[in-house]
Please model this.
Amino acid sequence: VQLQASGGGLVQAGGSLRLSCAASGRTFSSYGMGWLRQAPGKQREFVAAITGNLGRTDYADSVKGRFTLSRDNAKKMVHLQMDSLKPEDTAVYYCAATQRLGIPTMPSGYNYWGQGTQVTVSS
Model:
């Protein structure tokens, strides 16, 4: 599967952004989809993920209540709605796909990666 992330940008603290990830491939609904992020000088970290057909979601504690992940299997898209953004949310955000069951929270749990999109939140 190939992944194309979009929607990043510059926003003030308290603002919102919506990231999207477009996927190719015939069996999109069978993949779990996740967003992970990497800030300068830091390791890549889990943000949110959603399972395939059932659409069960999980979020990092740092984004719970502010970010919402959804998927549209017919359009082969996932969307990450990010509200109440904080400067510490600044990072490159990566869309990723996994064939594993459940919701991997480690980068090693994902098989396919998009190119990343920059999110910058100014204070």
Remarks:
- The mean pLDDT is 96.
- The radius of gyration is 13 Å.
